[in-house]
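Notes to self after the Tuesday call (sharing in case useful).
The group wants a holo model before anyone commits to mutagenesis around the pocket. I volunteered. Ligand is S-adenosylmethionine. Logging inputs and output together so the record is complete.
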Amino acid sequence: MKGRQERKSQRKLRTPVPKGEGPGAPARTSEVEVVTIEKPVYGGSFLARVEGKAVFVPMTLPGEQARVRITEDKDKRGYAKAEVEQLIAAAPERIKARCPHFGPCGGCNYQHTGYENQIAFKKEILRETLERAGVTAPDEIGVLAAEPWEYRNRIRVGFDAEGRPGYRSRRSHDLIAIAECPISAPLLVRAAMGAGEVLARVPANLRPHEVLLFCNAEERELLATFFVKEGAQLKLEPIAATLRERVVELAGAELATGGRPGHPPRTMARWGSGSLTYRVGAQDYRVDHGAFFQVNRWLIDGMVERVTAGQQGMLAWDLFAGVGLFARQLANGFDKVVAVESAPMSTEALKANLAGTTGEAVAASTLDFLRENARGVRPDLIVVDPPRTGLGEEINTLLNAVGAPALVYVSCDPATLARDLRALIAGGYALERVTMTDLFPQTFHLETIAVLRGPALRQG
Ligand SMILES: C[S@@+](CC[C@H](N)C(=O)[O-])C[C@H]1O[C@@H](n2cnc3c(N)ncnc32)[C@H](O)[C@@H]1O
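Result:
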């Protein structure tokens, strides 16, 4: 009944508007509709309906009324995408975005509302995603969050035709030149500007097209990895010294630059050590160029604490271990920790970070490791922290075969998490605690820490 009333109130305008307006607008259709926004959905947009069909509209808020232009109509999939032409009724929760690039820039989705609201959106999305997959979430979803600004310790920026640094546009692959980025550590923005100033004086065909900048939590050390297009005839040595000087001067930090191992044609000359030291709690970690490391410098300590606190025993497995963020901490409470990581950029640092501890680094894929070890060994704890694709069927089956007393699943994608949890619960694990961990404030991305209890302990 309510739905019908809402639909009635969605006055259809169907005003023709010129196609192809706006940067990169797909403009497959020019229909204009007035919609009422219902709720946030994963991916940064908000759900509205036109004649029952789902329409995803970015940069709106629940309860708002807007005149929107349909930009893509995915008939086969039964949904459409739209952009706001005019906000008719704004929600009281709407605020002015802090960043002047919010909107065109593809980096942030939620700067138009307060932080508490953003957290509520993410909890709602997480609960719904779990429940849609048939996973009953605990009554209370916990939250781990911190300061929502200047948190990023890593940015990847491109350079436009004038050499200005920028991010990819929200609606296309075009570059949006940036003058600031309030979600990133200021050091990174200064370094990007410094690199841009030097590169602006270099002919476009001799410029790297992107730089990946990574700093430690205190902004005292910085890694810069420059990327050049495949096959480009670059002679970067002549500008390397100037670039280094300017970036260091602006950043005010020690700089180590280098290539990504395994991708020599895409990167420039190596200078410096190629790694930095990242302090988490009482622990120093070596992190090399190209190695994965958690992105939110305000939350890494809290995350490690949430994953490892109170965990002890004889044997723990840290699968998808990166440079050993969790394994190093677990080594304080376990007689043996096996840390499995497949990326060559991470395995050397993983070995170094576990040296002299009860941890052992295994350079292998998780699947290969489990195929060899899942039957016959039962660790007291398994931590899994896979990439977006999640664990997948065979790993879930093997983890079910292990039946460890405790399993902690750290996930950066709620949909694959929900799919895997369903399989693990069917295999005998029970979901005990879920924490929405807001590693990416102002954006739609969300991390989850799910704690499961295994069949062995429950039977005992
Ligand atoms: C989300 S990161 C987590 C890393 C680490 N737990 C941390 O918090 O720093 C996922 C890690 O899994 C690694 N990885 C990806 N696919 C893998 C696989 N099939 N087997 C083992 N490691 C893999 C990646 O290189 C990356 O280091």
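Two things stood out.
The pocket of S-adenosylmethionine is lined by residues 292-294, 320-322, 325-326, 340-343, 346, 365-366, 385, 387, 412 (CB under 6 Å).
Residues 117-147+298-459 form a domain with the Rossmann fold fold (CATH 3.40.50.150).
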